[in-house]
Amino acid sequence: MLFLTPKYIKQGRLYIKEAEKRLAYNLDKWSAATITDFEGQIAKLKKALKGRDSAAVKDGEDALEKLCGVHCPVKGDAWMSENVEVFVVAIIVALGIRTYFIQPFTIPTSSMFPTLNGITGEVTKEEPPNILTKAWHTAAYGRTWHNVVAKTDEQIINVEEVPWMRIFTYTKITTSAGNTYWVHEGVKPTEEVFGRQTRKDGPFSMIGLEFKTGQPIARGFTDTGDHVFVDKISYHFRTPSRGEVFVFNTEDIPKMGNLGAPPRKPSQFYIKRLVGLPGDELRVAAPELFVNGERAKGASFDRVMSGTRENPTDGGYRGYSQGPTFYSDEYNLSTPEQTYKLPAKRYFAMGDNSYSSSDSRYWGSVPEENLMGAGLFVYWPFFREHKTHFGLIK
Predict the structure, then answer these.
(1) Whether residue 208 is found in the same domain as residue 312
(2) CA–CA separation, 349 vs 351, rounded Å?
(3) Assuming Cys at both sites, which of 89, 110, 136, 300 could form a disulfide with 118, CB separation 3.0 to 4.6 Å?
């Protein structure tokens, strides 16, 4: 057994492994004599290990160490090159996993609430807490605190989203006084949270809002949406299942009129519940969804249909809503009588919070080639002040 193996045997094996690695690295650089010396000393050490001769093993290790000292001198920056090598390998492995197996994805909106949380926030009268409390809030809740205060009497004249290093997103606020303010959050959540300061009903655009000197423009916090892992491999071995949460891209899904959905190019990723498979006939009679003439079956559908808009249940489920009534198309499901039958290789996506979801009722079914994978696991935030979703997605 491994834990009963003598220490000198384990150490000798490590010497052999390291020597063989260096030999492989330098086969095209060393002379035939040097290669022969290395191969000979490795063979001697292997023989000593096989015979369990501790003294011979020690001699073999010393001989290999001497050879390495002569032919593989340690360079001053060796530690750096080794670390760079490890770092590059780690990146390659991570990219491989992301491309073929599991990919992280962030929930930006409330279209799947309360199954999944999008970005939320709150305006506060008090200034942000101390740095330690803020650090804890960031780690536990994914919370970002904001405290942007007007420098003079001014009016907001422009609000735009600015990405930084393709990782972070900021909202740039420009005022009539020529001042520029930055909020570490996207435009939509920034305006939805902080635009409510003076406008109680949507839309929550901040353009036109006026502030006095010292008045908060954006004071409070935003909590990140749920971060999930998406299973990218299982769809290669099985067909998607009705009722599961899935992710797809919006490439080549046409934009309907001025609805603005799917949003802008390039393609974006959406996460919804898969409610209809190829060949299914769908109908919505709020708060219920019907598939092939029968009330949708399954625990996930039961949860969504457990409440109504007037009486939500289980943390906010309000049932399924009719589609948009301001235009007519075969798939918008705008009346309780309207049905829609899915073509081959097309899937119907709906948000669990269908009253606030841009989905297939607005822009049609999702082509099979757009499917990315099934929602697998919420890995962050670990906690929520209301309800955490850490764990498997249901």
Answers:
(1) no
(2) 7
(3) 110
Other CB atoms closer than 10 Å to residue 167's CB: what's the count?
A: 6
Strand order, beta sheet including 154-164 = 180-183, 168-175, 154-164, 210-211
Please state which of the ranges 3-17, 54-68, 175-189 shows the lowest mean pLDDT.
3-17
- What lies within 8 Å, CB to CB, of 338 at 6+ separation is 283, 332
Residue 99: pLDDT band with limits 50, 70, 90: low
Most confident range, picked from 81-85, 234-238, 320-324: 320-324
Identify the bridge partners of residue 347 per DSSP, sorted by sequence position.
366
Amino acid found at 139 = A
Residue 102: per-residue pLDDT: 76
| Structural domain of 307 | 227-392
Q: Which amino acid makes up residue 346?
A: R
The one-letter code for the residue type at 133 is T
d(CA 249, CA 367) in angstroms, rounded, equals 9
DSSP three-state, residue 74? coil
99-128 mean pLDDT: 85
pLDDT band with cut points at 50, 70 and 90 for residue 149: very high
Helices (H) and strands (E) in the chain, counts: 8, 19
Helices (H), the chain: 7-25, 32-50, 54-71, 78-100, 131-141, 187-194, 299-304, 360-363
Do 258 and 242 share a structural domain?
A: yes
38: domain CATH number?
A: 1.20.1270.10
Same domain assignment for residues 289 and 268: yes
| Neighbouring residues of 189: CB distance < 8 A, sequence distance ≥ 6 | 119, 120, 121, 222
Q: What's the pLDDT tens digit per position in 348-370?
A: 999 999 998 989 998 889 999 99
Residues 214 and 260 grouped into a single domain = no
Rounded to whole angstroms, how far apart are CA atoms 87 and 389? Answer: 32
Note whether residue 112 is domain-resident: no
Choosing from 56, 71, 86, the residue where a domain stops is: 71
Among 195, 223, 251, identify where a domain stops: 223
Residues 154, 172: one domain? yes
pLDDT at 131: 93
The pair of structure tokens assigned to 62 is 């010393």
Q: What is the CA radius of gyration of the chain?
A: 30
Is 241 inside a domain boundary?
Answer: yes
∠ CA 126-132-138 to the nearest 5 degrees? 80
